[in-house]
Amino acid sequence: MLDLKLIRQNPDQVAAALAKRNGDYTQSLSELQTLDSEQRGLEGVRSQLQARSNEIGKAVGIKIKGGADPKGEEVKALRDEGNQVKQELSELEPKEKELKAKIYDILLTLPNLPSDSTPDGKDEEDNVEVRRWGDELIPQGDSFLAHYELGEKLGIMNFERSVKIAQSRFVTLIGAGAALERALIQFMLNRHTRLAYTEILPPILVNSASLRGSGQLPKFAEDSFKCADDDLWLTPTAEVPLTNLHRSEVLTEEELPINYCAYTPCFRREAGSYGRDTRGLIRLHQFNKVEMFKFVHPDTSFDELEALTQDAEDILQQLQLPYRVLSLCSGDMGFSATKTYDLEVWLPSANRYREISSCSNCVDFQARRADIRFKIPGQKGTQFVHTLNGSGLAIGRTMAAILENYQQPNGSVKIPEVLQPYMGDRTFL
Predict the structure, then answer these.
(1) pLDDT at position 121
(2) What residues contact residue 134 under an 8 Å CB cut-off, 6+ apart?
(3) Residue 114 CB-density burial (10 A; 0-12 exposed, 13-18 middle, 19+ buried)
(4) Long-range contact list for 7-15, CB < 8 A, 24+ apart?
(5) 358 noted as active-site residue
(6) 383-384 vs 258-267, strand pairing mode
(7) 8-45 pLDDT, tens digit each
(8) Which of 52, 79, 247, 283 does the annotation list as catalytic?
(9) pLDDT tens string 385-404
C-alpha cells in the first residue's frame, strides 16, 4: 500500500510514477485527494470540538468550586453546550469512519511505485536483459520435442486423464515423473536452507486478510480459487502465507533479515490467459513451487534483491540450465513490486527463453498492507520492514526445461547430476 502522507505531500511525483505503470490511475488519485481533504477537514473540526468540550468541562468545575450553584442557570448553560458538542462529535465519528474506509479501499487498488532503477516501458518488449548464463549449454540442432510430448512418450505425465479427473490445465505425473517432481522440490529446499533460509510449511488455505496483505486482493480476486462457504482461498503462491507470518507484528532490528523458503502447491484460475500455453506444464491451474521470502531492513533491501536473485540463479546453475536475467520495465512489473528481475530458462522446442522465476523488492508496500514493523533500540516509534519474494523455482517449468534441454537422440532424457541422488542414482528417464 502506498503511503497516504507521500501522496498528500508529493501528488505530482506519485502521479508521474503511477503513469509509468500499466493502467490509468488518474481518477483514483483525484478521488483519493478529495476524500483525504474532506477527512482532514472533519478531523480539524473534531479537534476543535474536542478542545471546546475539554474547556467546558474545566469551566464547569471552576464555577462550582467558586461557589456557583451546580443546578444554576450559568452551570446549566455550560452543560447544555457540552452536551451539544458531544452530540456533534458523535455525529462526526461515523462520517470520518466512512471516509477512512473509502480512502483505504482506493489505496488498495493502487500499485507500488517503480524504483528509480526500474526501466521505463509499457510491456515485456521494453524489459532490459541484464545477463545470460550457460550459452554453451544450449542444445544444438533443429528438431526438439516439446516437454509435454516427451512426457507422454515416456509415460511420466498424462493430461488427458487429468481432464477426466478435473478439467483442462491439470496434469497427472506418473512414476519417474512424480519422482522427478519430488526430487526437484527436495533439491531446491536443501539448497536454500544451506543458504540460511528457514524452511516453512505453511497452510495452503489463506484468508482474505492474508491476500490483501500480500497484494493479491482486491486486484486479483478473479484469478484465485475461493472456498464457497468460508473466508478461505487456495493460495496462489507461498508468498501469501509467508508475507502474513508476521502480520500486525513489531519485530526487533536484531531479528532482521528474516529469510524464509517454502514449498507449496499453488492454485490459479489463469483467468487472463485464454488460448495461451494450453498444452504442457507452463500454465496450469495447480502447480508446485518453492518460494523464497525476506523481511529486511529498509537500508539493505536493494542489496537483498541482488542476493535473492542470485539464490534463484544458483538453482538453474546447479541444474546446468541456460537462462537469462531481465530487469522488468515499469509497465510489465507485478502489482506489489518496485523492482523485479525475471529469470527466463531456455526451452529448445520453442527456441526461446520462458519465465521460470520472478524476484521482487516490494519495499514497504506489503508491510503497510499487513502492518509489519520493526523497532530500533533507543529510537521512538517504529518503521515498516521491507519485503522481498522470489520463486526458487516454479517446479513444473523447471521440469519442462530439464526434459527439453536434456533430451537425447534415442528419446530418453538424462537426469541432471545434482538430482540423481534424489532419484536412487537413476541417470535417465
Answers:
(1) 97
(2) 316, 317, 320, 321, 322, 323, 346
(3) buried
(4) 7/32, 7/33, 7/36, 8/33, 8/36, 14/113
(5) yes
(6) unpaired
(7) 999 999 999 999 998 999 999 999 999 999 999 999 99
(8) 283
(9) 999 999 999 999 999 999 99
Choose, from 214, 224, 358, 360, the residue flagged as catalytic: 358
Q: What is the pLDDT of residues 77-130, one digit of tens each?
A: 888 888 999 999 999 999 999 999 999 999 999 999 999 999 999 999 999 999
For residue 272, pLDDT beyond 70: no
40 annotated active-site: no
Q: What is the pTM of this model?
A: 0.93
In the predicted model, what is the mean pLDDT of the chain? 95
Query: Of these residues, 169, 212, 268, 369, which one is catalytic?
Result: 268
Q: From CA 46, how far away is CA 93, in angstroms rounded?
A: 9
93 tagged catalytic: no
Q: Give the chain's length.
A: 429
Full set of structural domains in the chain with CATH: 4-109 (1.10.287.40), 124-423 (3.30.930.10)
Q: Span 58-69, mean pLDDT?
A: 85
Q: How far is CA 50 from CA 93, 315, 340, in A?
A: 12, 61, 47
355 noted as active-site residue = yes
By DSSP bridging, strand 258-267 and strand 205-206 are: unpaired
Is 374 in contact with 274 (CB distance < 8 Å)? no
Q: Which of 52, 249, 355, 426 is catalytic?
A: 355
CB 366 within 8 A of CB 215: yes
Is 301 among the residues known to form the active site?
A: no
